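Support reply, case 0932

Customer input (verbatim):
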Amino acid sequence: NTQMAGSYERWTGTVRSVLSLRLPDLQKDSFYRNSLYLTLSRVAATAFGLIFWIVAAKIYSQGDIGIATALISTATLVSNIALLGMGQSMIRYFSEYDRSKIVGTALRITSYCSIIIGLAFIVITSWWAPGLVMTAPYVLFFVLLACTTTMVSTLGSAFTAGRNAKHTFIQNLVLGSRALLLFPFVVIGSLGILISMTLSTL
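Our regenerated output:
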C-alpha cells in the first residue's frame, strides 16, 4: 500500500507539473517537448497505418491483401530481429561516445543483418514450403523493405537518443505517404502493396 501510494503521488506530481506548464515552457523543456513529439509520432504511425490498409482494402483484392500482409509482417519481423537491441544501446551510450560513429556503426550492422536474415528466410521458405517460393521482384522488395525498415527504426532510435524526437515525428509523416503510393501500383496486385510500403521508407 505504501509503495502504491508513493507511485500515485509521483504520478499526480508529474501530471500537476505538466498541467502547470505553459506552451512557451513546453518549447523550452526538452523532456516534455520530446515526450510530446514521441506521442505524436505514435499517433501518426498508427493513424497512417490504419489509413494505408483501409485504402488497400478498397482498391486491392482480398488475395492481394493476404499475400502483402504476410510479406510485410514477415519483413517487419526480420527487421525487429536484425535491430539486435541497437536502439537501446544507442540511447545508453549516445552521450558518452562519438554520435556519428555510433549511428554509422548501428546502421551498417543492422542493415547487413536484415539483408542476411531476409535472404535466409527466403531460402528456408523455398526449402520448407516450395509452394511459397517468391519470384525475383518479390524477393527484391521483400529484402529491401526489411532493410529500409531496419534503417528507419535505427534512425528513430538515434533521434530519440539525441533528444530530437521532432525528426521522428517528421519521419512518420513521410511514411504516411505510402497510402498515396498504392494507387499507381494497383495493376500489379500484391506486389504493388509491397512496393508502396517499401518506397515510403526510402
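We compared this against your earlier run and they match. Two observations from our side: The radius of gyration is 20 Å. The chain has a mean pLDDT of 84. Please reopen the case if you see a mismatch on your end.
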